[in-house]
Amino acid sequence: MKQKSISIELNKLITGDKEFILLLYERLLPKIINYVKKNNGEQTDAEEVFHDALYQIIARAKTQQIEIRTSLEPYIFMACKNLWLKELNKRQKQVRNDGVFELKDKDEERLEAIENQKRWDLFEEKINLLSENCKQLLKDYFDKVPYEEIVKKFSYSSENVAFQRVFKCKKKLTELIKADNRYKKL
Prior knowledge:
By secondary structure, this protein is mainly α.
């Protein structure tokens, strides 16, 4: 049932359902603005990233099948986050090159963003194949929760045990990703 509602949401986005798109703006744009501002950006940067992410998702959905395993909103947020991190990286390169700007064509940037989203999709798909314990443990690890808190939360005997468990979960995730045929293409 959840997959069906995601497909309906994606279809509303693709077809330009104004009410649905306004709802996305109301719910997501403030989160994107907050994220971008916390990461060296301005509101206008966030708005541009949000528009580019929507464009990217629509373009991708029109050309190929998109499989979204969570809801559409986190998917869009991750697309925005990837685009903003890419923009920050580009800005750093521009500054380092002593005034020589390496500007890429917008279409090339969008294609690169689509590839990043495909990588994220593969990662998300494979992490969902892990045990609930591993999923939660890796979520905390990726969120940079201190090992001291992980030990308490999961009732491990020591930080070393927590570290070993994180290592095993990451190893399993890596094996799942590398075993997928899409891995070499991405």
